[in-house]
User: Fold this.
Amino acid sequence: MQKTFSPSSLNCFENCPRQYYFRYVEKLPVESEGIEAFVGKRVHEVLERLYTFVGRGMVPSLEQVIYRYHVYFAEHYDEDRIRIVRKEMNAEAYRKNGTRCIENYYRKHYPFDGDETLGLETKIQFRIDEVGRYPIRGIIDRLVRARDGVLEIHDFKTGRRVPRQEELDKDRQLGLYELGIRDQMGEEGEIRLVWHFVQSNQTRVSCRSDAQRDRLKRKTGLAIDAIRTEEKWAPKESGLCGWCEFRGVCPAFAHEREDEPPPRTDQPDLFAGASSGK
Assistant:
């Protein structure tokens, strides 16, 4: 069982307890990676590198940044290991998606002097309760001091979907990161949570009240309690199953490994109500 919990591990349990069991309890080795996660990592690496150079007083050109992305993509891509679920897409289409993400962000924020970077890929670890029952860990993409002096937590999202504002105002990931930053830095003023949806070139911002932060603590504590008391670890089938790295060992898809169709649940029992002949 995990000693500390991350927003991604909490989401994993809620999406499918069996996937959580494979990933965090049994810790099964993973031999493949979804292309979406692969591209996301490459984009994050390039943006981290970009801001590292900016912090040294050097702003690389867009061409240089895109070139570095292509280098990272080629160095890490392995067609035997990377899974592509969407049949209408291929590796080249995903590579171009990543290029568009970088172009969108670069053009929108050049020359990158609108704020001060305090940290990149900043690791945080803290507890949301006084007695220490609920330890949390995470990694902040970029920690920022805005021109107006407000501390900001920035997150880069490479997916296609842009959530509604009311969803972002309840988002657990950056909400927990805010709690961690307040705990570690002693920040008492306003903190802005900022999402960069780089594929669609949109930015969203949220600020939390004391009541929202308290509610997040309670809900997170309940989520951790649910994991600690779980015994069945039942699979939960959904549209996410196609992307799951454990589909090949999941009991919900045993029929795929047996090379036979799953049992029909909508077919009537032909013998129901029939006489036994005795």
